[in-house]
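Subject: for your reference before the review

Hello V.,

The reviewers asked for a structural picture of the protein, and I figured it would be easier to keep everything in one thread rather than splitting it across files. Below is the amino acid sequence we used in the manuscript, unchanged from the supplementary table.
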Amino acid sequence: MRSEGEVTRAIEAYSDTVKRLCLIHLKNQADTEDIFQTVFLKYALSDLVFESAEHEKAWLIRVTINACKDLLRSFFRSHTVPLDVLAEQAAPEEEDHSQVLQAVLSLPEKYRQVIYLHYYEGYTAPPDWRAAPQKCQLGVHSDEPGQKAVKRGVGR
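And here is what came back from the structure prediction:
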C-alpha cells in the first residue's frame, strides 16, 4: 500500500492523462470520474515497485484502459439505455378508447360496476350465473348483460 504523499504526487502528475483516456473511451463525464477514482484506488493499494516514471505512467494507462473496457462490457452498461436517448424517442400514441369509455359510462350503474370489476380488477361471475343468478365475489351480478350493452353502444 502506498503512502498518501505518493498517491497525491501520482494524481497531480497523471490525472489529466487518466481523465482524457477515460473521456475518449467512455464519452461520459460521470463514468470518467468513477474510473478515475478506481484507477487511483488501485494505484494506492498496489504494492508494485515501478522501475521508472515511464513504467508508472504506462501502468496507470494500462489500468485505465482495462477499467474502461470492463465498464463498457459490464452487464448494467449493456442492458440499459441512457436517458438522453430515451428523451429523443417519441412517446407512443395512446389508443383512443373514448368510444368504449362513453359506452361503459352510459350503462346503468349496476352494469358499469360489473364491467369495471371484471375487466379492470379481474373479478368474475360464477360460471353457472344463468342457472342461479346469485351475487358474485363483490355482491354484483354477472356482467354478460353489461357486455352486450357495451358492444351495442360501441357499434359492434
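For the response letter, the relevant points are probably these. The radius of gyration is 33 Å. The CA atoms of residues 148 and 156 lie 10 Å apart.

Happy to draft the paragraph if you're swamped.

O.
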